[in-house]
Please model this.
Amino acid sequence: MFVMRAAEVLLGGGIIAYPTEGVFGLGCLPDDLPAVVRLLHIKQRDARKGLILIAANSEQLDGWVALPEGRSIPEPDPTHPVTWIVPAGRRVAPIIRGEHEGLAVRITSNPIAAAICNAVDSPIVSTSANLSGKPVARNRIVLRRQFAQRVDYIVPGDCGPASGASEIRELSSNKVLRPHRQ
Model:
């Protein structure tokens, strides 16, 4: 029921707060530019930083990524989520990439986040549920206190199975750009 409600909100141009592998996220549809702008405003995030897209599977990233022949995004490790920096595809608006050439993407292992992606048949924006520079909301009480009046729907559920924000790596070199944060 709540997954369908989240999908309705996203498809209607709204913003949701939802559980991911290690932290709560804020999200919208990546091709809904007014929603992306609103999300950046809510989070007080500099648009130059760029945003992450999560998907339930690699097929949902078709058109969003432009992987070299023979390359693919690795399957997720549920306890150690990795966000990959990959070449951006033709569907990616500059506001999603920020000042970066590449695009940050992750195949989510969180069942709620994956179900939401499947319900909208699209990747969704995934940025941590915090105001820029402030600690991330790690429980539903803090999430509601900070975002109940700012987002259109808070999806019930728990983060997991990891703890903390995902590691960020370049797909081309496997270089770690940000270690897993607990």
Observations:
- The first strand starts at residue 16 and ends at 19.
- The mean pLDDT is 92.
